[in-house]
Write a structure and sequence with these properties.
Number of helices: 13
Structural class: alpha/beta
Shape: globular
Distance between the termini: 24 Å
Largest sheet: 8 strands, parallel
Radius of gyration: 20 Å
Helix content: 25-40%
Number of strands: 17
Strand content: 15-25%
Order of helices and strands: HEEEEEHHHHEHEHEHEHEHEHHEHEEEEE
Strand order of the largest sheet: 6-7-8-9-10-11-12-13
């Protein structure tokens, strides 16, 4: 059934048999959703898995003829799936809300329906922000009072490939970017950096995806990377290895950033003293509403802030970009890594995150 749905028109929700929870009613929120598989340009070789696609669900919330777009993206480690997301969304009755600006109340309602389901909740949150921004006629960075000129450069992600030709292609694709993110935690960590350094001296950042198991070797690797123009190391050890990570942080010449360790607001305080900074992702934080709060708390605790993404279309990436002026580092390349984007939105101009000056999250469906 899902395969048949995905073969339909990429942006016509009605073509999918209308996966609609609420019948259209004036002055009420009306939710629609459908599955959409994201196809990667290159295989992602991570510390604990390999994948060539990511399951997703595209969402619309309509109110008085205005439509807000949202998205759930579910890489395997999140523990969500197309089935779990669509099941959660099917339980929601948003028609009980006559005011789309009641985002706090809607989040409380979603929490009451079922725990977890973070990507599913993020899809609703993103669509609500897009909708309310359109009603106000303003992008969310302006509503938050942020300066779009203060956005950072984004990193562009590559992972190791045993095929030398594929590895060469991946390295060549990094040319337009001013920071390269290297996926590590395999047996070829130094090899990929050395291959990259034969082509470019741009700064790198490293994501070990919990792949380093020995704190002494992790510290040695941090010193080795520091000599090769590395900015920071993301989630070097298992998220449960709190004492070893704190030990590493105290000795590392590079900042240690929490990723898998960090999900939502309570985790920010848990990360303080164990990590130097946090990586906020909308699919983990349940969307823009809590992500903004997490960034503010991290700043108050004196921590660095990174803004990341999953494999996503320009819908979710553009939503995240609204927060970009708040952060030190950005890894907003999820839409660049797929071959079947269905939105026009956030751009990378000369390596820098450039937020679209459009209302809401700033996206337009591609015809």
């Amino acid at each position: 059934m899902i395969g048949a749905l995905m073969a339909a028109s990429p942006i016509s929700f009605s073509a999918f048999g209308q996966a609609t929870r609420n019948a259209t009613r004036e002055g009420r929120l009306n939710l629609r959703f459908r599955p959409y598989e994201l196809q990667l340009r290159h295989a992602f070789n991570l510390a604990r898995s390999q994948r060539t696609s990511t399951p997703g669900v595209q969402v619309e919330i309509e109110y008085d003829g205005i439509v807000g777009y949202g998205e759930a993206s579910m890489p395997p480690y999140l523990g969500e799936s197309i089935q779990s997301v669509t099941q959660f969304l099917s339980q929601l009755d948003l028609s009980q809300f006559s005011d789309p600006f009641r985002i706090e109340d809607i989040h409380e309602y979603m929490e009451s329906v079922a725990p977890n389901n973070r990507a599913a909740k993020a899809s609703v949150d993103i669509a609500l922000h897009d909708l309310t921004g359109k009603i106000m006629g303003q992008p969310w960075y302006k509503i938050w009072g942020l300066n779009p000129e203060r956005t950072p450069n984004t990193s562009f992600t590559i992972s190791y490939d045993a095929d030398p030709e594929e590895m060469r292609k991946k390295i060549e694709e990094t040319a337009p970017y001013k920071v390269v993110k290297v996926k590590m935690g395999l047996d070829h960590d130094k090899e990929i950096v050395e291959a990259l350094r034969r082509h470019t001296d741009v700064p790198i950042c490293v994501d070990a995806n919990q792949g380093w198991t020995d704190k002494e070797k992790a510290l040695e690797m941090c010193h080795w990377l520091a000599e090769r123009n590395c900015l920071f190391v993301e989630q070097p050890m298992d998220k449960s290895a709190i004492d070893d990570t704190a030990w590493l942080r105290e000795r590392s010449p590079l900042p240690i950033i929490a990723d898998e360790f960090l999900q939502r607001m309570p985790d920010v305080r848990r990360a303080a003293g164990v990590y130097d900074g946090i990586n906020i992702k909308l699919m983990k934080s349940t969307g823009m509403h809590e992500a903004y709060q997490m960034a503010s708390l991290a700043r108050a605790l004196g921590m660095k802030v990174m803004l990341g993404c999953m494999t996503e279309t320009s819908c979710a990436v553009s939503a995240a970009s609204q927060l970009a002026p708040l952060v030190d580092w950005a890894d907003l390349d999820g839409n660049l890594l797929i071959a079947n984007d269905i939105f026009d939105g956030m751009k990378i101009v000369d390596g820098k995150v450039t937020i679209p000056n459009r209302p809401g999250i700033g996206v337009v469906p591609l015809a």
